User: What shape does this take?
Amino acid sequence: MKGQSILSISLLSLVMLANGAIPVFSQSRQTFQSLPNGVYLYGESQTLDQENTYYFILRKTGNNIIGMSYTGMERTDCFRGTATRNNINNITVAEIEPNSTAGWQFSQAEEPFDMNQLYRIDSNKIPQEALGQLQECVRVFSNRRR
Assistant: This one.
């Protein structure tokens, strides 16, 4: 596996990019952890399909999260973690290098994922292709123990 995962890099870039952004959860008392089970879409932008913008599709079941990050409809990483208030903690990242025969490679993210740095987007706008890729992430983690 080459260097640091894209998810880790994108998580760090969110902190730098979001200095002027209005946090998603600052407008209400609801936390990500308190949201009902379901599939959610978040992005660095409130608008879909922005160039060079990361989006995150998250499947929440209780406090367990399985998600994927993508940009330009290309999945970058799958990840699994635990929701605690507005953070995702204990993140395991799964990535696969294109044209690699090594299969999925797993690593631990060093920092929690701060959901306050993202905008929540209507889940009805999740592209079908992205939902299929999320299902692949669910399968990857279903076949792997914690």
Notes: The two ends are 20 Å apart (CA to CA). The chain has one domain: 6-142. Residues 6-142 form one domain.
